[in-house]
C-alpha cells in the first residue's frame, strides 16, 4: 500500500521533513527509534487518522484538581522504585525491535518474535507508527506538555530515553496509545484471553506513570487514541489482511506449544 506521508529526521538538533511513502526512517517523538534495524512502515497516513487536537480535551491546567490527581499518581508511582513493578515499567519503556510484542507474551502464552512469528511482529511494528506516532503527534506538538520527570527535576525509569523525552510533548502518551491498540487487536484475535490481554495493555500504560515519563491524564488520553486508531485500522484492507495472517500464525503457535 502506497501512502504519502512525512518522514521526520533529527539532524544536529533540528527537524528536517522529507516526503516518502508509508516508510519512516526515523522519528520526531519517543515511540520510534533513532536507529531502527529497518525503516518503519504504517498502515495509515496522516489524512486517515483523527486529529488528536480536535479529538482530545486539553491537558489539565496546573492549578486544577485534575493536575493534583496527576501529581498524586506520579508520587504513588515513585514509591515503587526498585520493586518488581518498577522493573516491569522499565521493560515496558523499551520499544526496541527486539522487544516488540514481548510485553504480551505471558497473557498470550506465545512469545512474539521476528523469527518465529514474522506476520505478527510486522503488524505490531506497523501500528507503532499508526497509534504511537500518527495518532498522537498533532496534540503533542501543540501542547508541548512538560513531563513529570522534567517538572520534578528527576529522571525516568529508563533514563537513556530522557534526552529525547525532554523535547517530546507529554500529552497524549504515545506508549499508552500503542499499548492499548496492541491489546485491543490481540484480544480480538484471542477473545478467550481478553481479560489477561486487556489487563496487560492497561498495565502497559500505567507503566508510563510509574516510570515518571507521563502524567496519568496523558495515559488516559493515549488510550482514547489507541482505540480510535484500531477502529480506523479495521477499514484498512492491508491491515485486515495482515490481521488474518497474524491470527492464523499465532493459532499455529498455540497448537504447537
Task: Describe this structure as you would to a colleague.
The protein has one domain (42-256): Up-down Bundle (Vanadium-containing Chloroperoxidase, domain 1). 54% of the residues lie in helices and 7% in strands. It is built from 12 helices and 4 strands, in the order ββββαααααααααααα. Strands 1-2 form a two-stranded antiparallel sheet. Helix 5 (118-134) runs antiparallel to helix 9 (174-189) and helix 9 (174-189) packs across helix 11 (216-233). The protein starts with a strand and ends with a helix. Mean pLDDT is 89; it is low at 1-21.
Architecture blueprint of SSEs:
Layout: E1 5-11, E2 14-20, E3 23-24, E4 40-41, H1 52-55, H2 65-78, H3 84-93, H4 105-108, H5 118-134, H6 137-143, H7 148-151, H8 162-167, H9 174-189, H10 194-211, H11 216-233, H12 237-256
Helix pairs in contact: 3-10, 5-9, 5-12, 9-10, 9-11, 10-11
CATH topology: Vanadium-containing Chloroperoxidase, domain 1
Query: Shape from CA axes?
Result: globular
What string, H for helix and E for strand, traces the elements in order? Answer: EEEEHHHHHHHHHHHH
The CATH C-level name is Mainly Alpha
| Major sheet attributes | 2 strands, antiparallel
Ends apart, CA distance between termini: 34 Å
CATH superfamily: Phosphatidic acid phosphatase type 2/haloperoxidase
